Amino acid sequence: MHREELQTFKGWFKQYVQGFYSDDPAVQAGIRLKEEHTRRVCTAIVGIGRSLDLPPEDLHLAEAVALFHDLGRFRQYATYHTFNDRRSENHALLGVRELERAGVLAGLPEEERNLITMSIEYHNLRDLPGKLPERPALFARLIRDADKLDILQVFTGSLERKEAAPNPLLNSGLPDTPGYSPVLIRNLLQGELCNYSDMKNFNDRKLLMLSWIYDINFPWTLAEIRRNGHVEKILDSLPGTEEIRRVGERLHIFMASRSA
Ligand SMILES: [Fe+2]
Predict the structure, then answer these.
(1) Gene3D superfamilies under this entry (predicted)?
(2) 81 and 16 belong to one structural domain
(3) Which of 26, 56, 173, 204 could crosslink 199 through cysteines, CB 3.0-4.6 Å?
């Protein structure tokens, strides 16, 4: 993808998002949250891409994927006032529909158009489909890493500020009750991703975020996670039980083995 095409997409995106700006402060906060998230995910995906020595055309393509990965979030929030896909609809598919409706990608070669829409569709799946061809797999992995990195950043930031009431935009409206669900601990100790449907409270949400470590694809992303201490910050906010200590140990062993 040429730089000029990426610039055109950025201009379109800006206008599109401004169309959702609202006088209602609650709606506006949600729209701005995702606008800022998109900006940071664009920066992160270029960071990962550079660490892999991708050529400039692929860096532009990757940035376009990041720019559009959460496009569906804006109409989702305006329509349903929630970012919870289970209470509204799949924001990835909604975003692809919005792109198609506006004909934004119409001028691109078919390969690039498909790579962008597939990467959007795959960005929020628990697992990537097996046996993806090399390029779709690469771009899907790039956006999944960049997205997770920023969500971890925002999440640990809110934990550090020890926000009196956890931000409902970030905790899926889960109650901040004591304890956690054993199934998520089991997943973490077995090196598996946790399932959203198993989350019962805010501690479960924290455990699910920790399990993302097992799904990070690139050394650059893992290095950023380590540099920012995301794992330690989340662990510190969980109950100081033996189980949590073992989860921490397991995660640290995994991260060390991946960076070696
Ligand atoms: Fe998303």
Answers:
(1) Hypothetical protein af1432
(2) yes
(3) 204
Q: Rounded to the nearest whole angstrom, what is the distance from the C-alpha of residue 95 to the centroid of ligand 1?
A: 9
> 9 alpha carbon to ligand 1 midpoint, in Å?
18
What's the gap in Å between 72 CA and the centre of ligand 1?
Answer: 8
Q: How many domains does the chain have?
A: 2
What pLDDT shows up at residue 86?
A: 87
224 and 116 within one domain: no
Per-residue pLDDT, 164: 53
Cβ < 5 A residues, ion ligand 1? 70, 124
How many helices (H) does the chain have, and how many strands (E)?
A: 12, 0
Give the CA angle between residues 119, 124, 130 to the nearest 5°.
65
Q: Which domain holds residue 193?
A: 174-259
Residues 107 and 19 occupy one common structural domain: yes
Structure tokens at 96: 């692809």
Ligand 1 midpoint to CA 25 (Å): 22
Q: How far does residue 147's CA lie from ligand 1's centre (Å)?
A: 7
